[in-house]
Amino acid sequence: MSVVNGKAYRLLQTVNVRWSGKKFENIPLDLKETGLTFKMQLYSLTEVLPERQKIMVKGGILKDETDLSKLGISEGHTFMMMGTAEELPKEPVQKPVFLEDMTDEQLAEATNIPGGLVNLGNTCYMNASLQCLKAIPELSNALINFNFNSQIDADVRKTLTVSLRDLFNNLSKTVESSNPLIFLNVLRLVNPQFSQQSRGQFMQQDAEECWSCIVNVLKEYLKSGETNFVNRHMSLELVSTYFFTSFFTSLTNQENADEAPTTTNEVVDKLNCHISGNVNYINDGLNESMIEVIEKTSPSLGRQCSYSKKTLINRLPKYLTLNMLRFYWKPAERVKAKILRKVKFPLVLDMYEYCTDALKMKMEPNREAIRKYENEVKLRGKNADVSDLKLELSEFDDVGSNTTGFYELTAVLTHIGRSADSGHYIGWTKDQSSDKWWKFDDDKVSPATSDDILKLDGGGDWHTAYLLIYKAKSFS
Known about the structure:
eight-stranded mixed β-sheet, ubl conjugation pathway, USP_CS, Papain-like_cys_pep_sf, 26% helix, alpha+beta, cysteine-type deubiquitinase activity, Ubiquitin-like (UB roll)
């Protein structure tokens, strides 16, 4: 029963609808549903699309989101509906090919739905990592060209690379879910941590650790297909070329001004984003990661001192991976607990402010060209023809680097749950030919929107971004 204004109503009523001189009687109406559900019922009766229907209710027109239980509808109520049915489609000139008659490859091409991965028992951490890696075309292309001779090569790490090649190849040719058992078995040989069991069941693992394991293996074997600028005969290693960020780091002793600062260069495959009580946006977390205070032994004082550590980027890769540091170790519970704080991230990210002056100067001509182009487009107006405008950006000698500092989000790996050793991981990737996104929940694949992606910023027990993969923004 539902109570509205002190009156009780049954949650299942039968109602009538008058439309275009016709009356449809005894239509079952579930008051637990919304207006859109009712409109879909009427569509099946009248062939009037839901968006064309105007149904009169108390207070105006029935909306899609209206809670039917709030309308006070009685048994036998008659609705008035307006709207015209859609014209029946004409018979196609070309005979259709039915889905059941297509091969797997034809289905994959026709539907454009990517394939999922079967969960083999707490393997969502691996499945989500693999789907995000597959969103990087340079990696997939390099895997296609990867050669392996099982009679000569007995290296299990090389075997992991070839099993990834075969898995990605299978995913590209079918809309069915693929079984990653071979890859999983090799992964557990490469890193026995992923073989841990509890009560006879394989344990959940950390997706970031899985991502790093796979990337480090690929670094050893995959070539990019590009050649070194200095040595045209030397093929570049793919992961370093497209994934690695280079830092310039300086350490200054805060307790001894006479101690000379020390500088180092560091290369990493991802950037860390700290999450503290002051972090609300991803830029806040990056700022805390780039400027921090650490404790280390002072060579001048011979004791532990506080050092100011400042990090600046002197090389940006085409693909920038950001690791949201959401997990920390709780010794009492012996578990990696999770920081649930909401941290917003953008679809387009500008890394210019985190770069060295030298890299800023190198990128500035391209950034100025982009500013002029965008200003001219804006001046001409929204629907103006801009085909005569040309945006020419200079290339760097550094193959696989970002020449502007601008990035656009291309994949997100999320976690839902309270600890890294439990919960569930999901991969979200941007379609390469449209603005559509895909959600990979193991073998369940479904479309998503940019708005859905921006809701992955945390703040509760919803899917929360853990790894963010940004791609150098294209201006062509």
